[in-house]
Automatic annotation (TrEMBL):
GO biological process, one term: cysteine biosynthetic process from serine
GO molecular-function terms, A-Z: serine O-acetyltransferase activity
Protein keywords: Acyltransferase, Transferase
InterPro entries: LbH_SAT, Ser_O-AcTrfase, Trimer_LpxA-like_sf
Highest rank taxon of the organism: Bacteria
Stated name of the protein: Serine acetyltransferase
PANTHER family cross-referenced by the UniProt entry: SERINE ACETYLTRANSFERASE
Gene3D superfamilies recorded: Hexapeptide repeat proteins (2.160.10.10)
GO terms for cellular component: cytoplasm
């Protein structure tokens, strides 16, 4: 709506009270839910569909900016994730880059995700080869 300063001011006030940082440029669908939101970050070009649930310390962020042949950073690209409908992203998960999490998927706690996830997927926490436990 063109009121970028006001939007950013309101976002900063909300962040100081909740620990949740949602860029005002993010697109968020209905029935969006954040549980125990401290440490949640949602980047500017993030797209979140309907009925998406996030838990504490989830990052929906960008990877580094690309550069041109002269080394200057290229800005303006959509660099944040797309979460389709009916997604759950558990505590501590980090999703980076313009990746798509397909409808009905679940992303486990502490997962580091930098690739697309097909619809209906369950991405578990990494399994350690040395201890046999999830870490």
């Amino acid at each position: 709506m063109g009121a970028t300063f006001l939007a950013r001011l309101i976002t900063d006030i909300a962040h100081s009270r909740t620990g949740i940082d949602i860029h005002p440029g993010a697109q968020i669908g209905g029935s969006f839910f954040i549980d125990h939101g401290t440490g949640v970050f949602i980047g500017e070009t993030t797209v979140i569909g309907e009925r998406v649930r996030l838990y504490q310390a989830v990052t929906l962020g960008a990877r580094s900016l690309p550069s041109d042949a002269q080394g200057a950073l290229i800005k303006g690209n959509r660099r944040h994730p797309i979460s389709e409908t009916d997604i759950v992203i558990y505590a501590g998960a980090t999703v980076l880059g313009r990746v798509t999490i397909g409808r009905g998927s679940s992303i486990g706690g502490n997962v580091w995700l930098t690739h697309d996830v097909p619809p209906g997927s369950a991405i578990p926490q990494a399994h350690s080869r040395t201890t046999g436990r999830n870490e």
